[in-house]
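User: My advisor, Dr. K., asked me to get a structural model of this assembly before our group meeting. I'm new to this, so sorry if the format is off. These are the inputs:
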Amino acid sequence: MTLVKFTGLTLAALVATLSVGCKHGPKNITQIPGGNSNVTGNGGLLDTTPGGRVGGGGDVVTVDGDGNIGLAGLDEFENMLMDREAFAAETVYFGFDRSEIHPDDDSKVGAVASALAQSPQNKVLIEGHCDERGTEEYNRALGERRALSVRDRLVELGVGADRIRTMSLGEDRPADPGFSEDAYQANRRGEFVLLKPKS
Amino acid sequence: MRKSIRLSLAVMAAVLGLGQALGQAQNVIDVDIFNTGEVKAIPVHIEGFTGDVLSLLKFDLFVQGFEFVERSKAQFTIKGSNTGGSVSGAVYDQLKRGFILNKRYQGGNLRLQGHTFANNVVEAVTGSPGIGLTKIAFRQFHGRNTEIHVADFDGFNAQRLTSDNSISAGPDWAPNGDTLFYYSYLKHNPDIYSHNIRTGQRRTVARFSGSNISPAVSPDGKRVAMVLSKAGSPDIWVASVNGTGFRRLTTTKAAESSPCWSPDGRFICFVSRAGGRSALYKIPANGGAMSRISTIHVSNATEPDWSPDGKAIAFTTQRGGRFDICIVPSSGGSAQVVATGEDPSWALNSRTLIFTNRSRGKRILSVLDVPTKRVKTLPRSFPGNCSQAAWSN
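Assistant: The format is fine. Below is the predicted structure of the whole assembly, which you can bring to the meeting.
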């Protein structure tokens, strides 16, 4: 298949053309290569290089100079079942454009920490969400910042950092698709998903 | 074989003649995109073209700073035809009283010929390269999921790149136009992939715990900046495009987002909440201290994109319930609003922007010529909401 090279095309077009005012037929023609440059689909994965992992297993989870606690690798959370109901009542909510945990939600985070303390084989996924009043990439990062705030609080309450996974959904999974203040508030949230080992 | 040698000789002889004629007309028109008034559009009169080719020509020229007037008011007359399945056209300079372009096109298809002619018109009149043959990659909504699509910059010939039935977002082009970087939740986590659009194959670039999002390929095509949260906070990281040599650049406890490169590859501009409100910063791509890029008159900056000529950074500000596109000198300074919308991406000409217009959940792509301040939605619409357009070279 002939490839269409974008910058090369204009040069080729210029080069193949005669000067001004010339009315001779065939020599005055600019040749355009190719037709549609087809995009072949479906994206077969060539490899599944997982990237590295920080901490996890028996390793110490690194904490940097600013107090950021490194995340355990994704392979720590493979082969686990997701239970969205177990902690459904403990969803925490955030102020507009904020990621701090509201004091009213402290008891909820505490309840999750207690439950995890009693079931050392379980882990937890925290999903961070935003309302739609922010740009898309900004909201993706804000959702993660929210999930990490919750994670940091769980760690303060004694849950091992290697038992907590975070995932931002940005503004893509609203709890309420409406455009009212109530809908927006319902969407600015952190949800806990219990992870139980497959047995 | 012999025929093509003859053609090459004829072509070489022609280039000499062509060079002289174009030299006169092709003074590069230097447009100040920071002019807060409206730079006057170049008035042209078009005749002889019909149907799709006429529409194509008008859109291409409109978004590159031309306007269409009657013959008596035109600075240039663009006359040609597209009958018989082939485009031919000439441009006559009314002031200098001479032709500055006269060509016929063959091969490819009518749209390619039309776009090439539009490019030749822009180059002949302004001295700057045309954008007619560029592509966009964007995110299209399919119900609750989103996939990556590619199209001609005017929305025609759209093709779907991913069918992962999950959320894919944040597309960015490698400079050679063959590979797209984006992130996808196909493995139940936002991970960054590089996707060769010719072969259809893709590689995982970053799949760490937490977020792997917002890939931005360096101008030399060798490195990719991204936002990773694996160190405990969303930070700017850089790696080689094959996903090795990861290096963390920012270390704040606040969230960073939306990296983009300076055209010389020395700096990465990004958004950080480190100062409280969301603001633009830059950091040396090889590591160092982050410094603020001031946006006077405009607070709350997100989604920056650095112009290919290095002069300006386009970004989004959010005030009240609305989003606005702004530009600021890349060294910082006075920022000005240039359109209503979000998430701008520069064309290679450093004057045309593509961006998203959002209202009550509906999202469409629009194009803005910054100097003339004129906006047009894409002539070819898509069967679903679209956002996050990235413009190829």
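One thing worth pointing out at the meeting: Helices of chain A lie at 6-15, 106-118, 136-156, 181-187.

User: Perfect, thanks a lot.
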